[in-house]
Amino acid sequence: VESRGLGATMLCPAKYLAQIIVMGVQVVGRAFARALRQEFAASRAAADARGRAGHQSAAASNLSGLSLQEAQQILNVSKLSPEEIQKNYEHLFKVNDKSVGGSFYLQSKVVRARERLQEELRIQAQEDREKEQMPKT
């Protein structure tokens, strides 16, 4: 009878340990869920702050597979100048031609970068037209 009583007391610490582990997992789970909700809210607020132009630019990045910064780096342009974009595009397209030992992959990246920058120029022109049409206050 005494050995059975001793076994019951040995289970008691294991039971407490299991309860502590379960409570710890619940606390961590709640903290993770709260952090995730906060991150979603912050992301939504940042997207709203960027406004409609940001949405168009982000959509253009998704379609082309390149961000604006990546496209600028590929074509080595610092500002969005149609002349500079075209000049750098023509040079990089020629030097990456397969017939002169270039890379088709790099050539396609150059084409995608030009397309992405041209789309950004189109978005900016549209924004400028919309600003001009707004009544002055």
From TrEMBL:
Keyword Aminoacyl-tRNA synthetase applies: no
Pfam families, A to Z: Pam16
Location, primary (coarse class): mitochondrion
Keywords for this protein: Membrane, Mitochondrion, Mitochondrion inner membrane, Protein transport, Translocation, Transport
Transmembrane regions: none
Xref: Gene3D superfamilies: DnaJ domain (1.10.287.110)
Phosphoprotein in keyword set: no
InterPro entries the record matches: J_dom_sf (IPR036869), Tim16 (IPR005341)
UniProt-annotated location(s): Mitochondrion inner membrane
Membrane topology value: Peripheral membrane protein
Matching PANTHER family: MITOCHONDRIA ASSOCIATED GRANULOCYTE MACROPHAGE CSF SIGNALING MOLECULE, MITOCHONDRIAL IMPORT INNER MEMBRANE TRANSLOCASE SUBUNIT TIM16
Family: Belongs to the TIM16/PAM16 family.
Record protein name field: Presequence translocase associated motor 16
Encoding gene, per UniProt annotation: PAM16
